[in-house]
Amino acid sequence: MTNIEIDKIAHVGVPVSNTKKSLAFYKDALGLEFLSTREISGDHISSGVEVPNAKIKVTLLKSNNLMVELLEYLNPKGQKFNRSNNDAGSMHIAFNVKDIDATYNNLKKLGFNCNQKPYPSSVPEGWAWFYARDPDGITVEFNGPIK
Fold this sequence. Notes:
With 147 residues, the protein is α/β, with parallel strands linked by helices. It is built from 3 helices and 8 strands. The chain has helices spanning 19-29, 43-49, 100-109; strands at 12-16, 33-41, 55-63, 66-75, 92-96, 119-120, 127-133, 139-145. A 4-stranded mixed sheet has the order 1-4-3-2. Strands 5-8-7-6 form a 4-stranded mixed sheet, covered by helices on one side. The longest helix is centred in the N-terminal third of the chain and has 11 residues, at 19-29.
């Protein structure tokens, strides 16, 4: 078996239904830095993403060491996300934050769905976590020290 040497995570791709609504979550609420938006299409794109006649609006955001790539399929439109966290293929993005309670309160105040108040974690000790949902129902986890 050949070992593949991975240098680092390049980005996390998140298919979205509406870039503007997703930017309200990832950029405005979470504070990720906006880098660029562009539209891509063509046979090489359709072949690469395995979606015939694909036309995609690609928006790049950055948070310290993580790039988030929002992918709005302009053509063809995709299906609404309908997976539970225990379904194979369901994924989530996890962010460490400096103030877990403030993060939870700010997301709730802005109208984003959070599953529970921050709950103490066993690893690392002294931290808490909670899940929220982005505008398309994708699970986003937040972890941070209990103050």
